[in-house]
Amino acid sequence: MAEKLVIIGNGMAPGRMLENLFEKAPGLYEVTIFNAEPRVNYDRIMLSPVLSGEKSYDDIVIHTDDWYAAHGVTLHKGAKVTEIDRHAKTVTSANGITAAYDKLVIATGSLPFIIPVPGHQLPGVLPYRDLDDVEKMLEISRGKGRAIVIGAGLLGLEAAYGLKRQGMDVTVIHLMPTIMERQLDPAAAYLLEKALTERGIDIITKANTRQILGTDRVEGVELEDGRIIPGDMVIMAVGIRPASTLAKEAGIAVNRGIVVDDGMMTSDPNVFSLGECAEHRGTCYGLVAPLYEAARVLADRLTGGTSEYHGSVVNTKLKVTGINLFSAGDFAEAPDREEIVLRDASAGIYKRLVLKDNKILGAVLYGETGDGSWFFDLMKRGTDISQMRDTLIFGQSYQGGAPLDPMAAVAALPDDAEVCGCNGVCKGKITSTISSKGLTSLDDVRAHTKASASCGSCTGLVEQLMALTLGDAYNPASVAPMCTCTELGHDDVRRLIKAKSLKTIPAVMQELEWKTSCGCAKCRPALNYYLVCDWPDEYADDYQSRFINERVHANIQKDGTYSVVPRMWGGVTNAAELRAIADVVDKFEIPMVKVTGGQRIDLLGIEKEDLPAVWSDLGKAGFISGQAYAKGLRTVKTCVGSDWCRFGTQDSTGLGIRIEKFMWGSWTPAKLKLAVSGCPRNCAEATCKDIGVICVDSGFEIHFAGAAGLDIKGTDVLGIVKTEDEALEHIVALTQMYREQGRYLERIYKWAKRIGHDEIRRQIMTDAVKRKGYYERFVFSQRFAQVDPWSERVSGKDKHEFKPMATVGYGEAAE
Predict the structure, then answer these.
(1) Strands 691-696, 672-677: pairing kind
(2) What is the longest distance spanned by two Cα atoms in the chain?
(3) Tens of pLDDT along 126-170?
(4) For every residue of 540-596, which 3-state class applies, written as one string?
(5) What is the pTM (predicted TM-score) of this model?
(6) Distance of CA 99 to CAs 5, 30, 84, 785, Å?
(7) What is d(CA 3, CA 306) in angstroms, rounded to the nearest whole number?
(8) Could you give the strand order of the β-sheet that contains 209-214, starting from the edge strand earlier in sequence?
């Protein structure tokens, strides 16, 4: 019979312990978790990107509800444990749940320290420890205004950056003369303060807080020197203390934290402690890497092993986009130490190594941090660096006095060299997993090893290990640059456009350091789409950054003429529209009229200069552009449905028309085709479209990710909904999710394969809040998208595009 394992706390450390436990001995324990927060386990390292808007809560979830169910774990959310009865071997929560244990793990984490100055209890004074804190900050930030951050340590600066990204004015108050004084020397602190100031963050050092001002809520902060800083929110980021009260009340030995031995055992042999609440050899750790090391040891001990935890050397990285910072070890000055310093003022690079007895004691890197992992490994091993003393500061690739092949430098790393500090993953774990599981993509490596899955700073090194392990079989398509103008891939460009609030193509190229002055035919259309999608109310679509068909709103043919496809809602037309088309065909002597596969009429062979006149005549009959040229919604194909067909179960024609009228004009990463079939006989061929609907007796079965071009692929079922309104909401939300995450020119079936069909179903079918958000953002964007381009051109917009090029003879003057 399985033993009962109860865990108090559901943070990253116990989550990693369970992963190791289930891998080593699945089924050994019946696991129950009490989580004070009302949610599953998430990556607290990524709270700062959530605050800055670079990630959402869904992006940082580590273990979903499905994961707990699959491993038979009972998870009590919003259940704070208030009592441990060591004699009865039970724990009880504030909401009355009691669970018995054979083994107990206390992982209660830490509590933020709140400076007890007058006014510290006012509404608007917030700590920065969990997702609830972030959500409160985001709520206040919607009113813009000013935020005051007390404390310029790692969390304080990340909070300041995130709130600045949300549009607030931000002032950081710090007691010490330099910021991040525990991790940085004064030179690096100067560079960091300069970079943050350039980003619009005010920093006041040597400042002590006298009181927080306000009556019903925060109104500002008064400093000891009398200065008053107005503000709408105060963030306390001055430190943490272990949450050890529960253990102390149960009679377990506590100093600053819950005292544990090298096996993470407390003074009670049936009780263990893990995470920020635990004190090991006099030290409480607040960074995730040592907590993960301890988690592996505890998992081994719970399965009868004898592993020991001997403490950790830690390193620090700041999660502020565009700032590269690495710090590790002890970099204080002392008579028996020497230092090596490299500065490049023009490039903003500063590197400092502190040595003693030819061993690295500490490292501070700013601006260029690629060798941080290597220096950190040398420091942890106590490697004698005397043979490379003269070239050490230049990094791993220059040992021996000349640049080495970077791949050779990676190959030289020992298997136990740490690659991912956030998750404590070593080189050997990555390479062996790649080989044993046949992994070929970065996403696969992240999923199976956790390397590069958190802050992402080790991504380049992980990719080099993939190339080293797979050789010629490695195809880095998923991380390939957009084009030769940049080293960045599509996903990074999209993320940085939002994170940096870049709202023009020149701004993107400048801020993201494009290698060319104006881009190329690959990157300009992609950037134009990303900006249209991300800033629909602010960015002006640049038609010069569109392909020719999208510039002139018609499809160019092999002979240089164009085809015109008027929009026919759901493939339905009438006599007046048909007469208007016939008149246009006669008037302009159009040589070919063809019915398309999307149930519309195509007029082929129109001269470019005639396009505005053709559109004018069609517009008088009520036609708008069918956008048959667009990287956007093309058609919604329908069958006649229940109004006419004896097999029809729902009004497929009516729903198709409703969808098309709701969604027309929307740009997407690639063309988007929809269909609605009135019954499972599927006359509208909905099961090979990007998005399709099969009407059934109980409602509407939504399909997605089909293809019927060069690739032939049937759709997968997204889910079934009961009403037309629900069908419309789900289809629109799915489209917006694709718009926000798809890479330019990536069809929906390729995007879905990359993201994962189950994840798409979860976000659209299960997560109502997420779905509503996608839906509302699409609706907002349509306010600016549903403008008929044909009528605009008939009115004279871009009229030069449709003028024939004049032939100027020798000696004649051109206008």
Answers:
(1) parallel
(2) 107
(3) 999 999 999 999 999 999 899 999 999 988 999 999 999 899 999
(4) CCCHHHCCHHHHHCCEECCCCCEEECECCHHHCCCHHHHHHHHHHHHHCCCCEEEEC
(5) 0.57
(6) 10, 11, 10, 56
(7) 19
(8) 209-214, 218-223, 228-230
